[in-house]
Amino acid sequence: MDTSQYLSMFLEESMENLQTLNESLLELEQNPEDIDRLNEIFRVAHTIKGMAATMGFGDIAELTHKMEDVLSEFREGQLKVTQDVVTVLFDCLDTLEKMVNNISEEVDEKVDITNIMKSLEKIAEGNSNEKVEDTSSEQHEIVATSVGEEEFLLQLNEYDKDVISEAINKEFNAFECKIVLSQQTLLKSARAFLIFQDIEEHGEIIKSSPSAEDIENENFDFTMELVVLTKLTSDSMKELILNISEVDKVFVKQIETNNVINSQASKNKVQAKEIEPAVGGNQAKPVATKAATKENKPNTQNKEHKKVHQSVRVDLERIDKLMNMVSELVIHRTRLEQISSSYRSPELNETLEQVARITSDLQDIVMKIRMLPLDVVFNRFPRMIRDLSVELDKEMEFIIEGQDTELDRTVIDEIGEPLIHLLRNAADHGVESREKRIASGKNPKGTIKLVAYQEGTKAVIKVQDDGAGINVEKVKAKAERVGINTDGMSDFDIKNLIFSQGFSTNEVVTDISGRGVGMDVVKTKISALGGTVDVISEEGKGSSFIIKLPLTLQIIQALLVKVGEETLAISLGFIDRVIDYKEDKIKKTNGKEVIIYRDTVIPLVRLGQKLDINTNHNGKNFVIIVKVGEKVVGLLVDSLLGQQEIVIKPLGKTLEQSKEYIGATILGDGLVTLILDVAALI
């Protein structure tokens, strides 16, 4: 069978399942008695194994199978959930993720699973010995009352007996079938359902042990017991099952009307003991009750199918193409609006209004399709903090809030790396050791919070800790050493110097709690996304890193301005207000121009000088007050051209190093206009 067509589906679902396992294992470590979580872990691990075996990835299937052995010990109550065991399981997940990534990236490198396999075997074998010793008396009781291979332990209730009696009266044969699979069977679950399928072509299965759920989860040994109603004879039934591959033995016993009830009484005690599950309700349930409710089954299936396929997986490239087409539509709509203003035709204007409305709705829908909740990024961090907690021997509580806040997928793709850096710094250098926290009168357990929320056209992400905070004097001293003049700077500005490149040195690790290590990388990445990052910190109380990002990077509302003969666009997300330019309001401080507005001193940037554009300030000029994080600056422009919805186009390789611009747009008259990067300017 050619499985290549299913590869993308396998890779996508495997990564989702591995992430689910990571999250579930974290929760299980915190709540070792959570049976539902344990069952979910077992089910997902089994799914990964089944998919890998089907696709022919034997190493992944083998490793997951060993992992299932350990999980089985959990389910049977023979293995306690400890930090050491969970750490081994996490190592196993990391190995599986690396193997899946190698398949995705078409890397031929074979991942060595020998060590992790030995660790898993050691855990499973070490506890199986304990299990024998601890439960020897219980096992002895079961063995003493257990039955031979040709005897059956399947318990029938009153409903089952009535169905069997009615079937026998209608000249059906009723059989108890005991099926033993080969010990080499890799996919017991798949084999079991093939057996069910073949039997149900000739009859009805009204009872099974283990239950359908246990069979699906491979939570059974190599033996199954079934009650079958059929027109076949005993020999024919036996031959039918034996002809299925990987079936080792079959025992078939006919059920007679007169012993349906009597034979049951002697088995009740044994059965009650034998099928009692080690962990939570795995009592046998009918696989199907077609004999009694055949006419109702299709209706049940239809109800189930209505709930399925509520979402569709779409390739991201297709969504990007759709977005580009909508962007072009917005450009041409603007062009048509300009043309129609020249003709003043009521009919044309009316049609254009309809087109504009539909285009806006279409654009809104496409934007929402591109939006993803932040939990796509956030869900990887609890595991990272847990590992850091173990590695650094610090107690840390990790709290996530607002993970349902949505961002454009292009932003989502890029925001992970800066957040990893900020969280690692919070855990490594922000939160103090247990001894230091106790000495400071703090809770021995440190707290790290990751908070997200929407604020207007921006998303705000905060990384907070209750650690040592930033020592302003040490930052100031470091700034002086690297040649940064801090005279006249506020404490806020001094603390934000840690984002400067000069602070990324080893010395910072000890001097200022590591807050500068790689922070220039964080700043650069956030700025490239059109966002800002600031730090607010109080020594001894903790620090908060505040990231502000645009919700989308494709279509934005912008103000068009004139500087000399050039038309430029400024995102409305940065603009606080626009005021008239008055020469008498301009002052100079430290050799730099500032403007006094409402008793506030605001630095002034003449865009003409900054961008080397010839300007004419003889007419009425304007100052656009922009706000980036906590910084406020006035941008001097010659005139305003109005507000417009614009499509951001990348500058290309030739101009991508231009720091003053984030991209360009095409206006309705075909003019290509550059979009200012306000964050970079100030």
Task: Give a written overview of the molecule.
Residues 127-149, 261-309 and 504-517 have low confidence and may be disordered. The strands form 5 sheets. The protein has a 6-stranded mixed beta sheet. Strands 6-8-9-11-10 form a 5-stranded mixed beta sheet. Strands 20-12-13-22-21 form a 5-stranded mixed beta sheet. It is built from 26 helices and 22 strands. Helix 1 packs antiparallel against helix 2, helix 3 (58-75) runs parallel beside helix 5 (114-134) and helix 15 packs antiparallel against helix 16 (346-370). The chain has 682 residues and is an alpha+beta fold. This is Chemotaxis protein CheA.
Q: Which architecture name of the largest domain does CATH use?
A: 2-Layer Sandwich
The percent of residues in helical segments reads: 40-55%
Strand content: 15-25%
Mean pLDDT over the full residue set = 76
- From the alpha carbons, calculate the radius of gyration and give it in angstroms: 34 Å
Overall, the morphology is elongated
**Structural class per helix/strand content?**
alpha+beta
The CATH homologous superfamily of the largest domain is called: Histidine kinase-like ATPase, C-terminal domain
Helix run count: 26
The CATH topology of the largest domain comes to Heat Shock Protein 90
CATH top level of the largest domain?
Alpha Beta
State the oligomer: single chain
Low-confidence stretches: 127-149, 261-309, 504-517
Q: How many strands appear in the DSSP assignment?
A: 22
The number of domains is 5
Please give the largest β-sheet. 6 strands, mixed
Strand order, sheet with most strands = 14-18-19-17-16-15
- State the end-to-end distance: 60 Å
Organism: Inconstantimicrobium mannanitabidum
Protein name: Chemotaxis protein CheA
